[in-house]
From TrEMBL:
<keyword id="KW-0560">Oxidoreductase</keyword>
<feature type="binding site">
    <location>
        <position position="288"/>
    </location>
    <ligand>
        <name>D-dopa</name>
    </ligand>
</feature>
<keyword id="KW-0285">Flavoprotein</keyword>
<dbReference type="GO" id="GO:0071949">
    <property type="term" value="F:FAD binding"/>
</dbReference>
<feature type="transmembrane region" description="Helical">
    <location>
        <begin position="7"/>
        <end position="23"/>
    </location>
</feature>
<feature type="binding site">
    <location>
        <position position="226"/>
    </location>
    <ligand>
        <name>D-dopa</name>
    </ligand>
</feature>
<dbReference type="GO" id="GO:0005737">
    <property type="term" value="C:cytoplasm"/>
</dbReference>
<keyword id="KW-0812">Transmembrane</keyword>
<comment type="similarity">
    <text>Belongs to the DAMOX/DASOX family.</text>
</comment>
<dbReference type="InterPro" id="IPR023209">
    <property type="entry name" value="DAO"/>
</dbReference>
<dbReference type="InterPro" id="IPR006076">
    <property type="entry name" value="FAD-dep_OxRdtase"/>
</dbReference>
<dbReference type="GO" id="GO:0003884">
    <property type="term" value="F:D-amino-acid oxidase activity"/>
</dbReference>
<keyword id="KW-0274">FAD</keyword>
<feature type="binding site">
    <location>
        <begin position="46"/>
        <end position="47"/>
    </location>
    <ligand>
        <name>FAD</name>
    </ligand>
</feature>
<keyword id="KW-0472">Membrane</keyword>
<keyword id="KW-1133">Transmembrane helix</keyword>
<protein>
    <submittedName>
        <fullName>D-amino-acid oxidase</fullName>
    </submittedName>
</protein>
Amino acid sequence: MSKKKRVNIIGAGVIGLTTGLVLQRNGYQVKIIAEHWPGDFDINYTSPWAGAYVRPEPKLDEKGRKLEEVSYKTLWSLSYMNDTGVIRIPTFDMYTYDLQIDGEPWLKGIYHKFQVIPKDKLPKGAEYGLSYVTVSMDVPKYLRWLLSQFTNAGGKTKKIHLNHLNDAFEPDVDIIVNCSGINARTLGGVNDDKVFPTRGQLVAVWAPHVKAAKFLLSQKDNTRTYIIPREDGIVILGGTMDVNEYDGTPDPKTAESILNRCAELCPELHQGKGLSSLQIIRHIVGLRPSRKGGIRLEAEISKNSAGNNVVICHNYGHGSYGYSRSWGSAMEVLELIGSANQAEISKL
């Protein structure tokens, strides 16, 4: 019986955990090494702060479609399990401009109960709309589930701060997978200056009566307003897209704007009692790991300190779509390192 190839994954956000679980389940011996883990809260650890639902982009290239389709189908299956924190929710996406999509949107036939909303059924000011059933995630519960599934499958963990990619090299490690997220900008050996933060501010409120997600993209002021119900009765209200902003402190005026916009989009939010009646659970600020040119999802061959070839695969730069492309990108990593290993074998 051949020895399992050893993989070290950098990062324990949703991308690192999902990638680790996929690889561990597919015959690799995986260890995730990271400073921050589910249960930790740090501005540079993005996953705990996310709104976390699957809202597909109506206009996507083939690669993006594949990542989202794989993730959506996998998360849909997880929504039938009680301990994942994943639930199914009806969703309504609206835009204040016509998207000018020729023919049927690519989402048709993939997303459950998908349809283009007739223009006469849209609220005032909206020019295009979609409805479908998607999934949302109770973030703390879902991250804990990923980690427990990973360790139950035999995966290993190591809590450590990494300054350089070389810190992930260990004896007998064959593959490094870099899922460092926003930290890819400063991690030695990567130093990707295409990575930048997109600050997002959210408000979590108690509103168990809200069962559907809503999203409105306004072209006039470039605001994104959204309502995302979770399993536990908390509803996430958003949001902002503040490019190259690092401040982790919630801004009261921004929070007020989010609440007002969300109440206008979803009047049932406060059940006619006014915004002051809403129970605010917490204010949230996170840094999305955005990247010029999109996700870096590629493999390369490098040398370790002993002069042996090691496969390095990168999987970061997901921006707002970490959760909705997590399973698709993890499966892509599985294919990439398989192809890289085969290419090395063919040279022998």
